[in-house]
Amino acid sequence: MYKRIAVAVDGSETSDHALSEAGTLAQEMDSVVLLLHVCEEMPVMWEPAGLLLMQDSMKAVADAGKDLLERHRKQLAERGAAVETKLVESYGGRIGSVISEEAEKWRADLLVVGTHGRKGVMHLLIGSVAEGVIRTATIPVLLVRR
């Protein structure tokens, strides 16, 4: 039985499916859900005008992440779930490992992540956050395909 379920959300259709599955599990098991969003790192521009523009862009990305978390928090709360949120704005690693580390810090029993299920060249070119989670997580991971 899972009492603490972390779910990674990014606003995609795939993560929406993962969120739905996590919500269903939380209802059935009377679990607390952690909604986790990791802001994408942006390339650094070294000229002063570029740095100011980048700071504005980073704030916009963080604000969008906060809005996403709040929208999903309300969605799960309407289903009767206890919900917490976590926005990670700054990190030094790959998104997959950050997701698994944050879920483990929160003491999650289960980590739910959406996956596109890409294979071959598309997987090599785009990479996989889900694969990064699987490689680094020390807790059970549920992959949800759309």
UniProtKB/TrEMBL annotation:
Start and end residues of each UspA domain: 1-145
Entry superkingdom: Bacteria
GO cellular component: cytoplasm
Keywords per UniProt: Cytoplasm
InterPro entries linked to this entry: Rossmann-like_a/b/a_fold (IPR014729), Universal_stress_UspA (IPR006015), UspA (IPR006016)
Location(s) in or outside the cell: Cytoplasm
Record-linked SUPFAM superfamilies: Adenine nucleotide alpha hydrolases-like (SSF52402)
Family according to the record: Belongs to the universal stress protein A family.
Name of the protein in question: Universal stress protein
Source organism per UniProt: Candidatus Nitrotoga fabula
